[in-house]
Amino acid sequence: MSEKDMNSKVSEMLARSEANAKNSGKKFVRPEDEEREVVAPDGSIIKVNPIYDYFSGARPEEEKPRNGIVEKFLNWARAESIWVLGFGTGCGSIEIPPLVTPRFDMFRFGVQMRPTPRQSNAFIISGYLSVKTLKRVIRTYEQMPSPKYVLALGSCTINGGMYYDSYSTINRLDHYIPVDVYIAGCMPRPEALLAGFGKLKELIKAGKAEKANEYARNFDWYKANQKKIVKDWNMPDYNW
Amino acid sequence: MTIAKLGYTLLGLFIVWNWGFLMGAIFRKIGARVSGRIGIPFYQPWINFFKSVGVRTTITHGVMYYLGPVFRLTGGIGLLFFMPLIYTGDPNGMWTNFSFEGDLILILYFQLFGMLGMAMGAGEGGHPYSAMGIARGLAQHAAVELPLTLAILSIAIQYDTFSMYKIVEAQQGGFQNWVLFTNPFAAGAIILAMLGAMGHSPFNLVKAPNEILIGPATEYEGTYLGFMQSAGSILHVMEAVLFMNLVFGGATSWPELIVKTFLIYFWSVFVGMVFPRYKIEQSITWFFKVPLVLGVLAIIVFSF
């Protein structure tokens, strides 16, 4: 299937889901999470807005790089200290654990796994993304502090791969979150992943890995695409 | 005089900060070599620090959240400010920092200070794993403090002073004068309690990697994390210096300090390489067995 066909298929799918959403009177927030008034134990009436009580819904803003040599130094530090969020999103996550073994040893390249999105600057989308995982991926991506980088692992993130016609997976990852480096293959071996880290380092050092700003710039487009796929949205537009 | 002293103290802080980073990297390197890997480059902690500080987004959950890392860093710097680093024979010498009569009590307090600050920060951060980690941390610290405090009181009774400088002074003149040999019960209690204070496996259930993420620090990122990395490196060295001053005769020069702190820290890393993580109830009961008995014995022996 050519890329043109793939694109038309994606837009067809998006149009279909949009039509479904209109017909079913789709709401993005569950009734129990809507803003409402409740009676407190002492009888007073208070307003609650569960979603915004837990998350900030403020839009992301473009964050300008610092000037000259400072930014160059920081980019070097960012490239040499890539902290990867340990979140297995698809079948490719089985290729990540070998990276910490003596045979591949990613630590010597300054790459290490972090358990929390707050402290990570790289996110590996490891293979196909199901519609349910996409929602978690969006939330996780938005919780990561900028500058942040996305590595898309495997063919599924590029064109759907062997799941191109599945009802439950998305086909093109960069319609939903911006991607810095694609690592093609089904599945790419850990060496390919290490090569991907190398490519990412080159991009960061050259100052070309500014996709977090691109996400902020094209925020409405990304959100529209995401909302076409995620049926049960039930969270603010931007949640960190 | 005070200005010069402040200058030396700040210089000491800088050396300790760097030595903490280097020591952390060396131990990660040793850990890598033990498991057959090449491991991180020795300068990785500095890169991590600068990267953390250079993060563009800053997220805050409020004042308490902000104060967490500040308290932790204050705990480390407070330990350094009031602890004599190098014994030179002059109580107002250049590396004795701002130690005074009775500084031992303040040092014991500063040791707990960082943990209390993190309890505040983790509370407001709101992540369930933070709360879980800090609850475990405080519980374990309570269990560690008991044998540790008994042993330190025993040393204070032995030398009839609460001054860290005088305790170091009394141990000069050869290794046979170290508390390790003059008060073996207290030394035993401190050496065992030290494992808990250092927070390595088997007593690393506060952070408990792979289980509760990284515990209290789960919500911290960017500059906060940079602060905490610095605080961690300073605290690791300063706790080693505390135990060096208490049990191993202090240091008379920087090379001696570096060798001794390295070996003291190596003890906890060595135990960590060999033993897997304890559960919280196992860890606490462990401190209430041999270390506590040694601590009580140390008190009894020197009280009568």
Describe the 3D structure.
The complex is a heterodimer of chains A (240) and B (304). Chain A has 8 helices and 7 strands; from the N terminus they run H-E-E-H-H-E-E-E-H-E-H-E-H-H-H. With 240 residues, chain A is an alpha/beta fold. Chain A has a domain at 74-231: Rossmann fold (3-Layer(aba) Sandwich), CATH 3.40.50.12280. In chain A, the strands form 2 sheets. Chain A has a 5-stranded parallel beta sheet with strand order 4-3-5-6-7. In chain A, strands 1-2 form a two-stranded antiparallel ribbon. In chain A, helix 3 packs antiparallel against helix 6 (190-205). The longest helix of chain A has 21 residues, at 3-23. Chain A is globular and about 65 Å long. The mean pLDDT of chain A is 83. Chain B is mainly alpha-helical and 304 residues long. Chain B has one domain. Chain B has helices at residues 2-34, 44-53, 63-81, 103-125, 128-159, 164-170, 179-182, 184-198, 222-247, 254-274, 280-287, 290-303. In chain B, helix 3 (63-81) packs antiparallel against helix 4 (103-125). The longest helix of chain B is centred in the first third of the chain and has 33 residues, at 2-34. Chain B is globular and about 55 Å long. Chain B starts with a helix and ends with a helix. The model of chain B has no long low-confidence stretch (mean pLDDT 87). Chains A and B meet through helix 3 of A and helix 2 of B.
Sum up the structure in keywords.
heterodimer; A: 240 residues; alpha/beta; Rossmann fold; five-stranded parallel beta sheet; two-stranded antiparallel ribbon; globular; B: 304 residues; 12 helices; 70% helix; 0% strand
- What strand order characterises the main sheet of chain A? 4-3-5-6-7
Rg of chain A over CA atoms, rounded to whole Å, is 20 Å
The protein's oligomeric status is: heterodimer
**Most strands sheet of chain A:** 5 strands, parallel
Q: Tell me roughly what share of residues is in helical segments of chain A.
A: 25-40%
Structural class of chain B: mainly alpha
- What radius of gyration of chain B results from the CA coordinates? 19 Å
Shape-level CATH architecture of one domain in chain A: 3-Layer(aba) Sandwich
Q: Low-confidence parts of chain A, pLDDT < 50 over ≥5 residues?
A: none
Q: Please tell me the total number of domains of chain B.
A: 1
Question: Which overall shape of chain B is indicated by the principal axes computed on the Cα atoms?
Answer: globular
